[in-house]
Amino acid sequence: MIPTLAITNALSDRNRLRTFMALLTFDELCVCEITELLKIKPPTTSRHMTILSAAGLVQGRKEGRWVYYRACREVNQEDGASIIAWIQSRLATDPEIIADKSRLHHIIQATKTRKTCTPQRSAS
Fold first, then answer.
1. In contact, 24 and 81? CB cutoff 8 Å
2. By three-state DSSP, how is residue 10 classified?
3. Which domains are seen in the chain, by residue range?
4. What is the pLDDT of residue 95?
5. CB–CB of 119/36 below 8 Å?
6. Residue of 41, 47, 48 whose CA lies nearest to 22
């Protein structure tokens, strides 16, 4: 039961759920891209990623000073896979998740253009 609780706890937060859905769509995202998407501070993003990682939902890798995350496609338990499949089916047409995908395309283009992992902030 502990792994199931870790997964449901990790996905009970709106920002972690949005991040996980984004990672299911995009192969890999840098912490800075996730931070830009969620409009939160880097330490908060890192805390969210630590929780998702501890639940076995994401894995990270460090490249230089950047940290990249990807979704774990095979969750270590049967119940976890069912939970993830249910969440994916429920959120596939969610307007916020769809908007996140579109926004991430722009964020990723900005990071590629600048060849750094610091997205350009849009003028507000």
1. no
2. helix
3. 2-71+78-114 (1.10.10.10)
4. 97
5. yes
6. 48
